[in-house]
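Protein entry
_____________
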Amino acid sequence: MTIIDVNVLKERLTKFGQEQLLKFWDELGEEDRQQLCLDVEELNLPELKQYFDKATASLSENSIKLDDRIQPIPDTKLVVIARAPAEKLKEYQAEGLRQISKGRVGVLLMAGGQGTRLGFAYPKGMFDVGLKSRKSLFRIQAERILKLQELAYEATGKKGKIMWYIMTSEHTIQPTLEYFKANNFFGLNRENIILFEQGSLPCFDFDGKIMLDQKHRISKAPDGNGGIYRALRREGILDDMNKRGVYYLHAHSVDNILIKVADPVFIGFCVQENADCAAKVVQKSHPSEAVGVVCIVDGKYQVVEYSEISAKTTELQNSDGRLTFSAGNICNHFFTTAFLNKIDSKYESELKLHVAKKKIPFVDNSGGRSTPQNPNGIKIEKFVFDVFEFAEKFVAMEVPRDEEFSALKNSDSAGKDCPSTARYDIQRLHKKYIEEAGGLVHGEDCEISPLLSYAGEGLEKLVAGKSFTTPVYLRASQESLNIAHL
């Protein structure tokens, strides 16, 4: 057990105006004192002071509209899947499959979230939206990786692996690992899956004082999906990428059930364009859709939040009737490993800080834990897309929303971005795949296993000229209906 010199601890905290963290020191037992001491030792106090000052300054900046400073993504930097020649898309796909076969492609999955808003007490990736297979988000994405490795082998004759780097949080890392073990890593090689933990930042009151969650514990919150860049270095992930020869990363969040994991068309496009950073986007459904837009601000790429531009600007249209600022951000990105190394060595400390005023449970003057009725402090986050401005060659790909984006954020009572809409969206897409392959479907309840088809390919021999009545579940020959889940 470490011997604690409380005077040294107090002096260190007082220097940065944080001595209130020792307010209940005299009431703590030895074990709790050790824990508080550990919490304090983890704090980079000079950096945290800068964070608070920078973050609170950004609060006033957030009210400034950016209308006069923004431009849309130039046509030369954007490929629109719906308008791109089929031959060009095949060329991109062949390039992507070639890179996968060489083992140069990895996936960065952001899976730190709990399923709390879904009424689910586990990591969100373990959630099952109610498909006939009962497959979870994690299993669906794992099976897409398996199928893609198979497609790359068929296309090139080379067996390449796709590395799967999964960012969890302090609270989700253990249950996620146990779930993967219980499901035998979904048939993937254990060596090609690495779980790592995102960081956290302390919560502040409005005066810059770090808050206590308990008398002996500092109040902390995850540092946002932009915390991934610091975590890649701290957890040894960048070193692993460099060592394994992973050149290209597809980064996305866990909660999009339609995600084309390591999409070879996207990878191939980015490689052929020699891009170091890229984003998939969807066309905004209407001007007032509350989604961030990828655009150029003062000559640099960034995501502009809906609140940062006026209604008049959101309604601007091009001559073809499309919204001028239509590139909706869906947390679906490409990075080269070289770019991630550059972010780590040069730019991570320059990332913007985003502030959210929150109702944060705290220890009151009597030592009791209180939950406030109104916001009483701030949580500071970094966002994954805030590296766009540091790219030397940024490109974007506009994809059809109905094929590539259906978020899972809320419980069914919300009526949108919920299990019912996710289930409906994937069933509708899979029905479309069957019909495009020459089948006829009566009803809506369709599911195609990713182990059978990654994105609708290879179905003709199974469905052409046939009629199906739902529920339809097409699965690979090696699958049984006994899918392990919780």
Observations:
- The radius of gyration is 24 Å.
- The chain has a mean pLDDT of 94.
- The chain has 14 helices and 24 strands.
- The CA atoms of residues 229 and 344 lie 6 Å apart.
